[in-house]
Amino acid sequence: MSKRKRPGGRVNSMAVERRSLAEPGIAGYAPRVALPALSPGLTLPAMTRPETPATPDPAEAAVPEAARAAAFARKQRWKEQPGNRYTPAELQELSRRLGKLTISEAGPEIMRLD
Amino acid sequence: MALPKVYDWERIRLALRQLDESVPGRLPSVVLIGGGAAWFYRENLRPWADADFPVPPTGPEEESIWLSKDVGFMGLTVAEAADRLQTPWDETTHTFHYAGLEVDFLEEGLVLFPAEALRSARQAQLPELTFNVAEAALLYAEKCALLARKARPQDHLHHALLARFLRCEFCRQAEQPAVLRPSRWVARARDVKTAAPDFFSADPRFNVRLAKAVAGLTAHEHRALQHWAKHHLPGYAE
Lengths: 114, 238
What we know:
The complex is a heterodimer of chains A (114) and B (238).
Chain A: H1 13-17, H2 58-80, H3 88-96, E1 102-105
Chain B: H1 9-22, E1 31-33, H2 34-45, H3 60-66, E2 70-74, H4 78-85, E3 89-90, E4 95-98, E5 101-105, H5 114-120, E6 122-126, E7 129-133, H6 136-149, H7 153-174, H8 182-195, H9 204-215, H10 223-232
Parallel strand pairs in B: 1-7, 2-5
Antiparallel strand pairs in B: 1-2, 3-4, 4-5, 6-7
Helix pairs in contact in B: 2-7, 6-7, 6-8, 7-9, 8-10
């Protein structure tokens, strides 16, 4: 199966997912590679993993990425201010008063095929 | 801005309970992440008292940066959380000030995203509270990514703890065939090795112990581990 890529980005599977390979000529989108002929009715949703997130356009992503980086730095500065972290004594006290803790794997075992 | 309140575990329990009541039915759909989640894994590793995999020792200086007083979750957007908690978002602290806690709802990490965090979450159970905690392998992958791209001292500590926890757990599960869940074990091993290609080769003691445990498995359903080990565990021999 050929994967169509947008310039400078990864496969945008969500965009691909919305259309059928059997339908040629979607306006505004020119595939860079020839698509293989598929049986009528065979569409990409059957072949793509539904949980695959859409890849944002690099230009569109630039601003949120910068904002996220700034927020990350701001948050770290906040953590480093006096009083915003547990002291060793406080951590010991947290451990001492925690009580019985169990961390278990919930849910049925699901075979993953990827 | 230093927090004016005294933080203690009772307050955290109270806030989590209140959060559970304020967001009815939603606590099961949010996942504890970040340093708080790593701390719970540390507290889970401690009572195992495994001679090969003790809790990594830390001095006072490292302990003083181990855990910050904000609690990070995934599973709600900031807008959803603001609506549910009825409290404004503080952009400066990147948290909600809620019931004496600083609560953050992260919409995405570097490699950690809500859908996968929820799908794979583990359940942490305390005497009076049950909540989701992000899968250790996902947290470890996020910490690997953070170490590669950022320079926060606490990430080294969390990374070391999660590596120790995962190595211990890989061995303990392989040593207890009765409770071993092979597909999950292999999926986790694959996730961890993707995050850190040398994870299964960097610690000789771990390597030897795990190889021995996997070689000792006899049930047919455990063949998946042996197949995996043949390709990914240095020194493993059937």
